[in-house]
Amino acid sequence: xxxxxxxxxxxxxxxxxxxxxxxxxxxxxxxxxxxxxxxxxxxxxxxxxxxxxxxxxxxxxxxxxxxxxxxxxxxxxxxxxxxxxxxxxxxxxxxxxxxx
Length: 100
Prior knowledge:
With 100 residues, this protein is mostly helical. The chain has 4 helices and no strands.
């Protein structure tokens, strides 16, 4: 019942997140393949900010708020995976330009 109350109280925020997902998919889908890897390496800084922000929010949330803690943990986990994956792809890209 608590989750239903959360959805009814934060309906506009949930609509905003869903709309953001659709806009993000459309924007990323329009990026040519040639530009994808350089943009990915630039996005690592943004994901680093997401990780720091999620940690900051998790430190200031009430310990009884399980939903916020779980979402914060997922944000840190997925942001870290994004940063590591971006660096791996960037490293592979830079390896192609090294002289043999």
